[in-house]
Amino acid sequence: MIRRGFHDHEHSYFVLLEHQDRTYVSRTPEQLVKVTAHQLSTNAIAGTMSNQLPDARERLLTDEKNLQEHQIVVASITDDLTPYSSELSIPEAPGIMANRYFYHLYTPITGKIGDNDVLTLTQAMHPTPALGGFPKGEAAAFIQEVEGNRGFYGAPIGYIDAGMDGEFIVAIRSMVLHDKEVILFAGCGIVADSRPEDELYETEIKFKPMLQLLGVSQ
């Protein structure tokens, strides 16, 4: 089950998957790609700041570390999609996506495609550097070595119709429930100028959507 939006009206998708005695839940702001009648849309979402910080929106739009992180993702998505679309529309500068706990740098990307479908584009794009690192091949090998199997965390989850149109999201900020145990997943992008304490704080806040669903007081 994939639902867009939620009761507090933030921009997010809600995912619930059940398999045998395990339940996977994700509440994610990140769309990977959508295709409707040869029109594609996707979002570059990278660069994050807690909305509790003073002047967070303005600071994020001018923060060099976050802008660098965001540009890596925009450039990678552009490279991935260029073979499938000659008419990509990409804003020159990112805007802001506001969620309950964060501001994210956000660049919407649209374009036209020919005979390709949503599965082809999903395979070409996944994982974006926001989840899989960059350069993509080297980063994926490192993640596999250090983290092992991530399961559904960071996976593309979505739907297709009979015409091969559809939409896929990226399953981040998630959890797996099994018996009385819950494992939560979240992460952040690390670049050369990242400060470990800031990234740890950001990751802790990213657990809040799952804690909220569990009814855990904060």
Total count of strands: 11
> What is the mean pLDDT?
90
Radius of gyration: 17 Å
Determine the fraction of residues in helical runs and give it as a percent range: 25-40%
What portion of the residues fall into strands of 2 or more residues?
25-35%
Descriptive notes:
This protein is globular. 31% of the residues lie in helices and 32% in strands. The chain has seven helices and eleven strands. By secondary structure, the protein is of the alpha+beta class. A hairpin with a 2-residue loop joins strand 2 and strand 3. A six-stranded antiparallel beta sheet has the order 6-7-5-4-9-8.
Helix and strand layout, with pairings?
Elements: E1 2-4, E2 13-19, E3 22-28, E4 31-36, E5 39-50, H1 56-62, H2 64-81, E6 95-98, E7 102-112, H3 118-125, H4 129-132, H5 136-147, E8 156-160, E9 166-170, E10 174-178, E11 181-185, H6 196-206, H7 208-214
Antiparallel strand pairs: 1-2, 2-3, 3-10, 4-5, 4-9, 5-7, 6-7, 8-9, 10-11
Give a concise summary.
Helix content is 31%, strand content 32%. It has helices at residues 56-62, 64-81, 118-125, 129-132, 136-147, 196-206, 208-214, and strands at 2-4, 13-19, 22-28, 31-36, 39-50, 95-98, 102-112, 156-160, 166-170, 174-178, 181-185.
Q: What brief labels describe this structure?
A:
single chain; 218 residues; 6-stranded antiparallel beta sheet; 7 helices; globular
